[in-house]
Design a protein that fits this description.
The complex is a heterodimer. Chain A is mainly beta. Chain A has one helix and 34 strands. In chain B, strand 19 and strand 20 form a beta hairpin. By secondary structure, chain B is mainly beta. The chains are: A mainly beta, B mainly beta.
Chain lengths: 444, 543
């Protein structure tokens, strides 16, 4: 009688080169080189081992003979301040920005040194593009890295660092695709920065063949300790006037670097992926449904999520699984809405949801099973429709949201909101100056 | 939080961001690149021994490195009758004095103290001050205090009298009454531990029960376990000494294994534990004989269980005793010369990886002079499961540690001969070389047991192979069937498309036994096989 020979716990018993090979139980291996038994989603399986990556960017100068973990604080690595940094505009239109820094998320003051790198014209409200109310600012370990640039201006984006206390130090001008610095084919802006281990990834957008709506998108990796700048993959260009490429965000998931791209109106946004240093070309992973602009990108429970905007339609939150299956996780119930920041906090996924009608600023939360409303910001903070969602970061065990005011509404004020693990929303900064949307948690 | 790293002949510190700070060695101290440092933390101070030419004390606050020991005064003080303290306010009786060199912090707390000088001669006073002179200054530039000790009237026990808070003054007078002396006698006589002067060394050191425990590297002292007073890394009391079966071999005490309630003393062929909590209560107790530890770097303690490499396998010591974890499954790895270079077993090093709940032990491949392979011992379940050997093409491993980052998250680290520290368990599906960031393939290979439906004498028909795997963005898994007897050769390979998740691949063939080999050697690719099935599988006949 025909039978079968299943083994769905392959490798569970590990290696055995001692026992009788004819009587070994299922799950036993005769060879197990560079493999390990892992459990993923409650299912066990045999896998190739995970990778190894360097922690230090500069070599120690000789073989590492011993490493000892010292669980004691030291001041030997500098006087880096730990805190939350917020970018503000004192008025609009403006020619420069100011920053506020806080060690506790409650009391904010203007930090020393940081303003010097914000030269006139390099950061201004014109960077607030439509629904993407943000300026790329991201903390990087004990050194703060900020990238900024102009939209519709001629100054290239720059990368600078600030150690939390001292004067900022300009690092480099980002190169243009025409090889000239500053580029002759501006505008150039940076729209997202992602810190991963000892590396800093960021996206740039630059005019391509299509003019202001035909953008070239590039992703760079920067090693702050060595100053080495490397472009990741190819430059993405739709290759036609009006096709419009605008980097929408970066996220790491499933071992891949994902890049969300917005397009000009009526062309769907796209999600690309790449294995940095291994692949040389970005692979198109997903094209959003027709007409959907890509606004935000984030991860939750190891899965990738993107938020969309659809002119005249319903915004969506789309989810990708490790099996590359895309599905809609959340559908907005109001036309012309968009999904702002997507951020994991307190084991939940938080999403900003701007709506054209009804309560126009809501925060939705996903617990892995269902979406519910976490807060109605119109009711709680009396926001009006001109307020937008900026960035969201976790700091000091709480979630902080910037709520900027677009430059077209100079009389409105922005706010910085805080959401604690108990579900309470407060506004540490409100109604004073415009919050641009840039937030960063400065290490260590 | 930071990592202390020995890189060749240097000591350096690294933080979570990979930022490096060099540690400046005290004048005259060097680090040997042919020795591996041992370190311990006691009372927030970092002690480093063996590789430095002198024991080092490093203050974590600013990473200032100093000699762990302050050399004691080489001359005795002189005592004499001093001036009048006022009628009835002077000292009366016979008195003796000693002094020591010390380092105080800005708050006045003693951070280090030398052994005391020998005692002065005796002086008899009658309602007079005690004049103490010939108090020498220390050549140690960090010394900012001399501590004065004297006996009570007509006594022989020394008590702390006062401090001279400089390294200049050479004479004082004291009229401190006996009643105003320190309540407790001065610490018992302490001595300089090995490693305080060039030419000697502490070979191992650890912290247990709030004390530093160590063993000398000197040939005649390797069986003697010495330890400090509580929370005083500099106070190695002369009486705090346990000889552990002295003279039974040349290796002496190889390593410590500090468990919650017992300090394991591991020799090559003996395991002893120290139990107790005080000098009076500390007691050595035999745990095992003919079992021991061969590699100091292999000893780790996980959840109050100690693990180490012995001469014939990996051992675990817990409340149930000492057992060999590898004998039943991979014994030939440790008892033959087929798999690893056993001559280099003393250089092995091990750490624990909590993400996969696995011990990872680095060994040298056959013919290799570096510990370029590692094995994994999973602690899941009652019986340890062994995997490996592992290797990487990106660098040569030279050290391991399980560390924690600033957020107290575990970070298993591997040190490389290239001067880089590597993070394990990365999401990248390659090994990334430091500096160049070149990605190397993780060359994986696993072979399953022989399938025969428990009837290996009968020839079977092994039908279609199907594989269930994790869906990847790209990549393929090579599956090589072996069908026949135990000596069956490799059959035509299948390529499993890892983007599918499930795939029917084809028939395996006819033979008494069948085994599958999974392999992949492509940078940026990974795989996870949940299971496979061979169907149909039926008997062809007994031939």
């Amino acid at each position: 009688m025909a039978e079968n020979q299943p083994d769905y716990q392959v490798g569970q018993r590990g290696l055995n080169i001692v026992a009788d090979p004819l009587t070994l139980p299922d799950g036993t291996l005769l060879k197990a080189e560079n493999v390990e038994f892992v459990r993923e989603g409650g299912i066990g399986g045999l896998a190739s081992r995970a990778g190894l990556a360097p922690l230090n960017a500069s070599a120690l100068g000789a073989a590492v003979l011993a490493i000892v973990n010292i669980p004691i604080d030291t001041a030997a690595f500098g006087s880096s301040a730990s805190g939350l940094l917020v970018a503000l505009h004192p008025s609009a239109p403006v020619s420069s920005s100011v920053w506020l820094f806080s060690n506790d998320g409650a009391a904010f003051s203007v930090p020393t040194g940081l303003a010097s790198m914000l030269a006139a014209g390099e950061v201004n409200s014109t960077v607030l593009l439509g629904q993407r109310q943000r300026l790329a600012v991201r903390a990087f370990e004990s050194v703060f890295a900020v990238s900024y640039g102009t939209d519709l201006a001629t100054v290239p984006p720059k990368l600078a660092k600030w150690d939390g206390t001292d004067a900022s130090q300009p690092a480099l001008d980002l190169p243009s695709t025409d090889g000239l610095t500053p580029p002759t084919s501006a505008p150039s802006i940076v729209l997202d920065v992602l810190a991963v281990g000892a590396l800093l990834y960021f996206t740039t957008t630059q005019a391509g063949v299509g003019g202001p709506n035909g953008q070239l998108v590039r992703v760079f990796r920067f090693l702050p300790s060595s100053g080495v700048l490397t472009q990741i993959g190819n430059t993405i260009d739709a290759g036609g006037a009006g096709s419009g490429e605008l980097a929408g965000g970066l996220a790491f998931a499933y071992g891949n670097l994902f890049l969300g791209i917005s397009t000009s109106a009526f062309l769907p946004g796209r999600v690309y992926r790449i294995l940095p240093d291994i692949e040389t070309t970005w692979t198109l992973d997903e094209t959003l449904p027709a007409g959907h602009d890509l606004i935000s990108i984030g991860t939750f429970a190891g899965e990738l999520y993107v938020g969309t905007h659809l002119t005249g339609g319903l915004s969506l939150i789309r989810k990708r699984t490790s099996a590359a299956v895309w599905s809609t996780s959340f559908t907005g119930a109001s036309n012309d809405g968009y999904i702002g920041p997507l951020i994991e906090f307190d084991s939940k996924l938080f999403a900003g949801w701007w709506r054209s009608t009804g309560p126009q600023l809501l925060v939705q939360v996903f617990d892995g099973t269902s979406w519910t409303e976490d807060e109605n910001l119109v009711t709680t903070f009396s926001f009006t429709a001109v307020t937008r969602f900026g960035q969201a970061v976790e700091f000091g065990g709480a979630l902080y949201w910037s709520m900027p005011r677009p430059g077209a509404y100079p009389t409105e004020n922005g706010s910085l909101l805080k959401r604690d693990t108990g579900g309470t929303w407060t506004a540490p900064i409100s109604a004073a100056r415009c919050v641009t949307g840039a937030l960063a948690v400065v290490g260590p | 939080m930071f990592y202390l790293i020995q890189a060749g002949a240097t000591l350096q510190a690294m933080n979570d961001a990979g930022t490096i700070v060099a540690i400046t060695l005290p004048s005259g101290v060097t680090v040997s690149a042919s020795k591996v440092m041992k370190a311990a933390v006691l009372a927030r101070q970092l002690l480093v021994v063996y590789a430095p030419s002198k024991n080092l004390w490093i203050d974590p606050v600013d990473l200032t490195a100093r000699s762990m020991a302050i050399l004691p005064p080489s001359t005795v003080p002189t005592v004499a009758a001093g001036g009048s303290a006022g009628v009835g306010l002077g000292l009366t009786g016979k008195f003796m004095a000693k002094y020591s060199f010390a380092i105080k912090d800005s708050a006045g707390t003693i951070k280090n103290e030398s052994p005391k000088s020998d005692s002065s001669l005796e002086v008899t006073l009658t309602d007079q001050k005690l004049a103490i002179s010939a108090i020498t200054v220390s050549a140690d530039a960090d010394v900012n205090c001399r501590r004065i000790y004297r006996t009570a009237a007509d006594g022989t026990v020394f008590f702390h009298d006062q401090d001279i808070d400089d390294n200049v003054t050479t004479a004082i007078e004291t009229a401190t009454s006996d009643a105003a002396l320190s309540l407790l006698p001065a610490d018992p006589d302490i001595q300089l531990p090995p490693g305080s002067v060039n030419g000697t060394a502490l070979r191992i050191i650890t912290q247990w029960k709030g004390r530093a425990w160590a063993v000398s590297d000197a040939a005649g002292e390797r069986d003697d376990v010495i330890y400090t007073l509580p929370n005083k890394f500099y106070a190695w009391a002369q009486l705090n000494n346990f000889p552990i079966n002295p003279g039974e071999d040349s290796f002496g005490v190889v390593a410590f294994a500090a468990r919650r309630d017992a300090l394991g003393i591991l020799k090559r062929t003996r395991v002893v534990k120290i139990v107790g909590s005080t000098e009076a209560g500390f007691e050595p107790v035999d745990v095992a004989e003919k079992i021991g530890c061969v590699a100091v770097g292999s000893v780790i303690v996980v959840r109050d269980k100690a693990y180490w490499l012995g001469l014939d396998g990996v051992y675990r010591w817990d409340d149930d005793g000492v057992v060999n974890l590898t004998r039943a499954t991979v014994d030939p790895w440790f008892t033959t010369d087929t798999y690893f270079n056993r001559e280099r077993f003393p250089n092995a090093f091990m750490s624990y990886d909590p993400l996969v709940n696995m011990l990872k032990l680095n060994l040298a491949a056959v013919g290799a002079s570096t510990e370029n392979r590692w094995i994994g011992i999973s602690l899941e379940g009652d019986d340890p499961r062994i995997f490996g050997p592992y290797q990487t093409a990106a660098f040569t491993p030279t050290a391991r540690v399980l560390s924690q980052d600033d957020e107290s998250r575990f970070r298993p680290l591997i040190g490389g001969s290239d001067g880089y520290v590597y993070l394990e368990n990365q999401t990248v599906s390659s090994d990334i070389a430091g500096g160049t960031l070149v990605a190397s393939a993780i060359s994986s290979l696993a072979k399953t047991k022989w399938h025969s439906k428990k009837n290996p004498k009968v020839t079977h028909y092994f039908g279609e192979l199907s594989v269930l795997s994790r869906i990847e963005s790209a990549g393929a898994l090579v599956i090589t069937p072996y069908v026949g007897g135990l000596d069956a050769g490799a059959g035509a390979t299948f390529s499993h498309d890892l983007t599918l998740g499930y795939e029917r691949l084809g028939r395996l063939g006819v033979g008494r036994l069948a085994s599958l080999e999974f392999s992949q050697a492509t940078a940026g690719r990974r795989w996870l096989v949940f299971g496979y099935d061979i169907e149909p599988l039926h008997e062809v006949g007994w031939r």
